[in-house]
Design goal:
With 327 residues, the chain is an alpha/beta fold. It has one domain (11-325): Aldolase class I (TIM Barrel, Alpha-Beta Barrel). Helix content is 30%, strand content 16%. It is built from 11 helices and 12 strands. The protein has helices at 43-55, 74-82, 99-109, 123-130, 135-147, 167-171, 173-176, 200-210, 275-279, 290-302, 321-325; strands spanning 11-15, 60-64, 89-94, 113-117, 151-157, 180-184, 215-216, 227-230, 238-241, 254-257, 262-264, 273-274. It has a 12-stranded mixed beta sheet. Helix 1 (43-55) packs across helix 10, helix 2 runs parallel beside helix 3 (99-109) and helix 3 packs parallel to helix 5 (135-147). The structure holds S-adenosylmethionine (SAM) and iron/sulfur cluster (SF4).
């Protein structure tokens, strides 16, 4: 499906929970989100929406959260989505804390790739950023997935005055392992509005000085807006997702569904359509037909704005946003 700006929308991020086992300071509000279990979509409801979306041309799904690995039976959901006609790819973004223990089930279910969010390789700084001493668990999870030959990416967000220099060590993950290490500019969404980010422009210049062999990597790596570079002798690439200082919205190919079943055309705005209301009647049974849900999905796609509104804080999505929308 194309949106009204001609962008081909074929990717959907699906948040499966808004709970998390970390408290990253730029994401999780001080009072964590507590959505009642009854308000979270069931596996059957998520699978139904994904099947309908797949029928409209959405072929790639990313499970996110909150922390998706906190959702019981996530591997079963992965397997179910993978069996859906027209679905080409099911991936996940995770903080990696539970990855090692869940990996075998996810891999067997057919998970195509995993993005692990990691903002530093330093144990004390990791605890400062996330609130927990769990770096080793994340590293074990990354190693486990890489050892199975899985596609693994590291996503890092740099905060000014906190982990500005963490990139040096993070890039080294790509040296001997076929891992892409990507730097996502902090967006002023929810708690992110209270923290200062680091511009990828300055970061790139510092990296180029440290590794002069940095050169563009023309290969397609994923489904998103990252721009990739290679360093001589490195197994993986370095990616930049420049939400604030780079091309970001022009190639946007995605919609997002929150764990409560709200379908959002854009990360930056509060606007959404509640699919949960269409999926459920008061008694909890299916209320609307697949056609009605497909119409709602089409409507969200055609309402996608041309670009985010990060420059206007009054319009940007509110306090609990990232942990609910799923990044
Ligand atoms: N818990 C999982 C994780 O950390 O990967 C999935 C959800 S988390 C919201 C998804 C991604 O959003 C993480 O990589 C996180 O660093 C990123 N994120 C959260 N708040 C952000 C913000 N304000 N700006 C940019 N990225 C943000
Ligand atoms: Fe949790 Fe991910 Fe948000 Fe960190 S970024 S608090 S791991 S949802």
């Amino acid at each position: 499906m194309r949106d009204s700006f001609g962008r081909d929308i074929r990717y959907m991020r699906v948040s499966v929970t808004d709970r998390c086992n970390l408290r990253c300071r730029y994401c999780m509000p001080k009072e964590p989100v507590r959505t009642g279990q009854q308000d979270i979509l069931t596996d059957g409801e998520i699978a139904r929406v994904c099947r309908i979306a797949a029928g409209l041309g959405i072929t790639r799904f990313k499970l996110t959260g909150g922390e998706p690995l906190l959702r019981p039976l996530l591997a079963e959901l992965v397997a179910r989505l993978k069996e859906t006609p027209s679905v080409e790819q099911v991936t996940m973004t995770s903080n990696g804390v539970l990855l090692c223990e869940e990996w075998d089930r996810l891999f067997a279910a057919g998970l195509d790739a995993v993005n692990v969010s990691l903002d530093t390789a330093d144990r004390a700084l990791y605890e400062r950023i996330t609130g927990f001493d769990r770096l080793q668990q994340v590293l074990d999870g990354i190693d486990r997935a890489v050892s199975c030959g899985a596609a693994v990416r590291i996503n890092a967000v740099l905060q000014r005055g906190v982990n500005d220099d963490a990139w040096r060590e993070l890039i080294l993950f790509a040296k001997d392992r076929p891992i892409d290490v990507r730097f996502i500019e902090l967006m002023p969404i929810g708690m992110g509005a209270k923290v200062k980010g680091v511009s990828n422009t300055g970061l790139f210049a510092a990296m180029k000085a440290a590794w002069p062999s940095l050169k563009p990597d023309g290969r397609v790596h994923g489904n998103g807006p990252a721009v990739y570079w290679r360093i001589d002798g490195f197994a993986g690439s370095v990616g930049f997702i420049s939400a604030m200082h780079g091309p970001f919205c022009g190639g946007c190919n995605r919609i997002r569904m929150t764990a409560r079943g709200e379908l959002r055309p854009c990360l930056g705005y509060e606007d959404c359509v509640s699919l949960r209301d269409l999926l459920r009647s008061e008694k909890g049974e299916s209320r609307e037909t697949d056609d009605a849900i497909a119409r709602a999905v089409r409507g969200v796609i055609s309402s996608k704005p041309r670009m985010h509104c990060f420059e206007d804080r009054r319009r940007t999505a509110g306090a609990e946003a990232m942990v609910q929308i799923g990044g």
